[in-house]
């Protein structure tokens, strides 16, 4: 049995958690004793109710719309449940640190996710041991060890399928002239927790004794689904400006609200984000875009002014109205396209597709024209947008391959609109497939997502037209192997037929034969030879 006694109202004190069947918790984390009890302040729970090794409970954070303080009163026990789930790894590691004279605690996002019932195989620990001491303890024990983050006090390891990071108590801050944080080590877990970004990430479970530590009321904020900073947001964001983007990212990942004072600090300090390296900004942006609710995070970045510094093309869309006059503005249309693209994903979050959806219309501000009939046009915005996409993604240090793919999708996203009701020839369909290449499936999704008209009849017509295009592509693929369109003659055959060696002439001939293949479909060897000779005879 598990016993918990409620004693008065306070915020952020320590909760003692024992082993299975031996848990005793003095509940003093912001809930009045009267809120926990009806007739008695003594609560009793079955040990099985708060979890078994290998069992991940469902979310223990009450719905924000429910008045369920008794549910919140069980939260520390659920934290114990999750720590028990990783006991074979965590407790073994903790004992090794204890035997070496050091402390160890599960910390940060691992504790938060444990309380949310979503703890995975990535475990974060904090310790008073210095990195060189951590290496001495971890190396003989772990299956693998890496030192990529050791300059910042972090040692990585893998053990029994768990990805583990052990970080020395620390505090870090940015020099206003540097893009890298300065790291100094601390001596207490309280000092370590106060430097963390948000209160929901500033909780810990000390091991092996399983003591729940919450000096900043993170449990209350987790239950309220709100993001606050342990200290003042101004001090926190000054220490590491990237935390402003993390606020947007966690709001998107967890569907939490950001406290008003935090939002106010983000607006006041938005320009401070420029001191952060492009790589760190990119990584944080990726996590936001790949989250469950990216619109929420992107809206916060735009409204706070941070997007003006890291992705200025996005807020610029708020000023533009699209040519259909059906949307509030191109910015709102873009967010709808992103959400619709996400709905079409089949194998989990697709960064390439989501970035293309987010950036597909960024060329509109530069191409806007007011026509004589009062309409607004954005001719060739897909071409301009592709160039802008390449420039922005390159500045954010994305890989060349990803830059190429996203830019290409942006460039192609309007191609379908020339299809009409099926007027394309087979040649045009082949070129569409050839130009999309391995991005064809993503182009299908992006094109469908780009239909946000409120006119149901028009939306249905566009959907039917694209259905027809996909059917024609499928038919031609079955007949002609469109996925690997090549000329009927290869380079060696061209040189043999024309009697020439390697050089520009062979490249021109190959391109001509490819054009004939796209235009006519498979020609057969004899017809291809005749066409090649006819073309060659016309060359100077």
Automatic annotation (TrEMBL):
Look up and give the organism this protein is from.
Answer: Streptomyces pseudovenezuelae
* Coiled-coil segments on the chain, per record: none
Protein's name in the database:
Poly(A) polymerase
Top EC class, one word: transferase
Name the InterPro entries on file: Bact_CCA-adding_enz_type3_sf, HD/PDEase_dom, HD_domain, HDIG_dom, NT_sf, PolA_pol_head_dom, PolyA_RNA-bd, tRNA_adenylyltransferase
**Any GO molecular function:** poly(A) RNA polymerase activity
Swiss-Prot/TrEMBL keywords: Magnesium, Metal-binding, Nucleotide-binding, Nucleotidyltransferase, Transferase, tRNA processing
Highest taxon of source: Bacteria
**E.C. number, please?**
2.7.7.19
Domain (HD/PDEase) spans 326-540
> Which cofactor does this sequence's record say it needs?
Mg(2+)
């Amino acid at each position: 049995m598990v016993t918990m006694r409620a004693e008065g109202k306070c915020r952020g004190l320590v909760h003692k958690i024992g082993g299975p069947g031996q848990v005793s918790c003095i509940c003093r984390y912001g809930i009045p004793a009267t809120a926990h009890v009806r007739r008695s302040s003594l609560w009793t729970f079955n040990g099985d109710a708060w979890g078994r090794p290998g069992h991940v409970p469902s979310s223990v954070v009450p719905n924000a719309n429910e008045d369920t303080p008794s549910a919140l009163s069980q939260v520390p026990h659920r934290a114990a449940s999750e720590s028990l789930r990783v006991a074979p790894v965590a407790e073994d590691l903790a004992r090794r640190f204890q035997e070496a004279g050091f402390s160890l605690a599960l910390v940060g996002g691992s504790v938060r996710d444990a309380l949310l019932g979503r703890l995975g195989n990535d475990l974060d620990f904090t310790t008073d041991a210095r990195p060189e001491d951590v290496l001495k303890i971890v190396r003989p024990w772990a299956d693998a060890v890496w030192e990529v983050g050791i300059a910042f006090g972090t040692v990585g390891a893998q053990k029994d399928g768990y990805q583990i990071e052990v970080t020395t108590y620390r505090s870090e801050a940015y020099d206003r002239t540097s893009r890298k944080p300065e790291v100094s080590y601390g001596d207490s877990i309280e000092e370590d927790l106060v430097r963390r970004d948000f209160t929901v990430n500033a909780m810990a479970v000390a091991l092996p004794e399983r003591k729940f530590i919450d000096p900043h009321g993170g449990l209350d904020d987790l239950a309220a689904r709100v993001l606050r900073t342990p200290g003042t947001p101004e001090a926190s964001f000054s220490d590491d400006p990237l935390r402003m983007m993390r606020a947007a990212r966690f709001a998107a990942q967890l569907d939490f609200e950001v406290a008003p004072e935090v939002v106010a600090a983000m607006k006041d300090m938005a320009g401070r984000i420029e001191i952060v390296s492009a790589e760190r900004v990119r990584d944080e942006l990726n996590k936001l875009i790949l989250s469950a609710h990216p619109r929420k995070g992107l809206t916060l970045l735009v409204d706070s002014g941070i997007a003006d510094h890291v992705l200025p093309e996005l807020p610029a869309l708020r000023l533009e109205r699209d040519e259909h006059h059906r949307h509030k503005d191109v910015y709102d249309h873009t967010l709808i396209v992103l959400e619709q693209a996400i709905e079409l994903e089949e194998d989990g979050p697709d960064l390439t597709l989501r970035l293309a959806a987010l950036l597909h219309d960024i060329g509109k501000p530069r191409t806007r024209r007011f026509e004589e009939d009062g309409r607004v046009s954005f001719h060739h915005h897909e071409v301009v947008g592709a160039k802008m996409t390449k420039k922005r993604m390159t500045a954010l240090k994305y890989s060349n391959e990803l830059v190429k793919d996203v830019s290409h999708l942006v460039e192609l996203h309007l191609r379908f609109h020339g299809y009409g009701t099926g007027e394309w020839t087979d040649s045009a369909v082949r070129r569409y497939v050839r130009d999309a290449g391995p991005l064809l499936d993503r182009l299908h999704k992006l094109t469908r997502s780009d239909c946000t008209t409120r006119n149901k009849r028009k939306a249905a017509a566009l959907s039917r037209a694209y259905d027809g295009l996909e059917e024609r592509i499928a038919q031609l693929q079955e007949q002609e192997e469109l996925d690997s369109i090549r000329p009927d003659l290869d380079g060696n055959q061209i040189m043999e037929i024309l009697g020439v060696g390697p050089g520009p002439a062979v490249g021109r001939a190959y391109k001509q034969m490819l054009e004939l293949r796209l235009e006519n479909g498979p020609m057969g060897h004899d017809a291809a030879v005749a066409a090649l000779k006819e073309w060659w005879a016309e060359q100077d």
